[in-house]
Amino acid sequence: MSQKIEVKNANVYYGMEHALINVSMNIKANTVTALIGPSGCGKSTFLRLFNRMNDLIENCRVEGQILVDGQDIYNPKVNVNELRKSIGMVFQKPNPFPKSIYENVAYGLKVNGIKDKRLIEEKVEQSLKQAALWDEVKDKLKKSALALSGGQQQRLCIARALAVSPSVLLMDEPASALDPISTMKIEELIFNLKSSYTILIVTHNMQQATRTSDKTAFFYMGELVEYDDTRTLFTNPKFERTQNYITGRFG
Amino acid sequence: MKKKEIIVEKFLLVCTLITVFTSAAIIGILLYQTVYFFSEVSVWEFFTNTKWTPLYYVKNYGVLPLLAGTFLTTVISLLVSVPLGLTIAIYLSEYAPKRFREMVKPSLEILSAIPTIVYGFFALTFVTPLLQNIFPQMAGFNALSPGIVMGIMILPLVSSLSEDALHAVPRSLREASLAMGATRFQTSFRVVIPAAFSGIAVSVILAISRAVGETMIVAIAAGQQPQFTLNPFVPIKTATTYIVEVFSGDIEHDTVEYRTIFAVGMTLFVFTFILNNISYFLKKRFQTNL
Questions:
Q1: Integer Cα distance of B123 and B117 in angstroms
Q2: Distance (Å, rounded) from C-alpha B27 to C-alpha B9?
Q3: Which of A114, B36, B61, B275, by CA, is between 20 and 30 Å from B107?
Q4: Other C-beta atoms within 10 Å of A162: how many?
């Protein structure tokens, strides 16, 4: 299998702060990679490299090479909007737009210039089905998305991200604001989405990392400490710091 | 110690009650005099007659010319302040660097610190001659010039409150939109502005209230002739100007002429009261929507 994502010596600075130090990592297509580590360790910064969300932060500087499908996404010629279309993101807190359920999912298509109503309707239905939300909302697509429960809202946000057909899905602690049943549904979803997407997920929850991911990366103080098969990393870590973190001795 | 607490509490209560009482008293007097007025002049005449000459020999009590004057200057001021204010608000909230925004916002608000009498003479002695170069048929007193100047005066109200509303839209909504490949422009116009819509509407409504109640600028630059017209080039008279005129004149109290100002004042009050209630309602909806 070829490498979907290749990171070579990535460094990120916020002003004087060196937030990500010399990180290199390869990620295969159609896998789930969990990013773990204590707060402020750089895992979210790392996640946001791939859709260039760090660009939005003033004084943020990125060095190194980040290749997606062999293409350097920090090349000045890259169209950031096109890039973000191909790399979807789900945020920590469900953040549906204060619009109808339908409009939420259709949004990405519409801002990308798709006007064909039939096509949009098909895509909305397909995305909601992929996000395992269709059966719950198919009769109230015109209702406000804010009327949904937190778990439903988060699945709506996943559907919204899927609608523009990305190939990579970035998830920034997607279940941390949800109850256990909603969390379980999101995890099931991640498992099912793996066949069509390459997924990176930031999580504070070790069990979640072991349940959902193929590979796990442990970050500490801006450095990538250990990156291995999830099973290996959790049962037989090479470094003591990883061992201490996953057994809950700090973090 | 406990006694002191009680005294403080009672003192605060009295302060609060004074405010409530003052409002109630103002409304009470307005209402009393208005009812009195309408026992002598019919409501029908007041709202349908198109002539307002209560101080002349032939008396007409039609409030429409005054309302037309108020309406005209208000609309002109909104045509200036709303588009300009919203543009400024969108730029400051969505595009401007943080430092620039922090510098410009307070300097914009200086506009509302200028006394209205200064604005009035600015309209009369600067803007009117300027406009007369473009529209030679324009009279020395007119609705256009004070309308524009009033628009400048309420500009910071619109831009500042709208900017607050836009700024209150959570960052996460912008991120969600940008992360889907939307441009900054699309994010502003399709997500942020709709989400802040009721907050923006509140700023516009407060601007209307402010324009309707504005007195000094129109009294100085719009003229003293109650005309039932929507022509911005001729002298008119607004409701507030009329009240000032009667008050500063030597009309005897306890006459119908005198009570006209209460009827006019009541009309203005009802109007701004309704507007304020709409804005209160919208504000609440805005807060629950976020």
A1: 10
A2: 27
A3: B275
A4: 24
Tell whether B155 and B35 lie within a shared domain.
no
Residue B194 to residues A98, A145, B165, B169: CA-CA distances in angstroms?
Answer: 8, 14, 11, 10
**Cα–Cα distance for residue pair B229/B139, rounded to 1 Å:** 14
CATH of A3-246, one of 1.20.1070.10, 3.30.559.10, 3.40.190.10, 3.40.50.300: 3.40.50.300
**Residue A71 contacts by C-beta under 8 Å, 6 or more apart in sequence?**
A78
Listed residue (B171, B175, B169) closest to B195, CA to CA: B169
Q: Are B132 and B227 within one domain?
A: yes
Name residues of chain A where pLDDT drops below 70.
Answer: 1, 251
The rounded mean pLDDT for chain A is 92
B39: helix, strand or coil: helix
Which residue from A56, A81, A97 is facing B191, i.e. has the nearest CB?
Answer: A97
ipTM of the shown complex: 0.91
For residue B52, give the DSSP letter: B
Which tokens go with B204?
Answer: 């516009």
> Could A95 and B173 be called an inter-chain contact, meaning their C-beta atoms sit closer than 8 Å?
yes
**Residue B186 at interface with chain A, using a CB cutoff of 8 Å:** yes
Searching chain B, which residue's CA lies closest to the CA of residue A166? B180
CB contact under 8 A, A107 and B183: no
Q: How many domains in chain B? A: 2
- Phi-psi map region of A96: left, alpha, beta (phi>0 left; psi -120 to 50 alpha): beta
Q: According to the model, what pLDDT value does residue A40 have? A: 87
Condensed to tens digits (0 to 9), the pLDDT of residues B185-240 reads: 999 999 999 999 889 999 999 999 999 999 999 999 998 899 999 999 999 999 99
B178 CB neighbours in chain A (<8 A) are 53, 56, 84
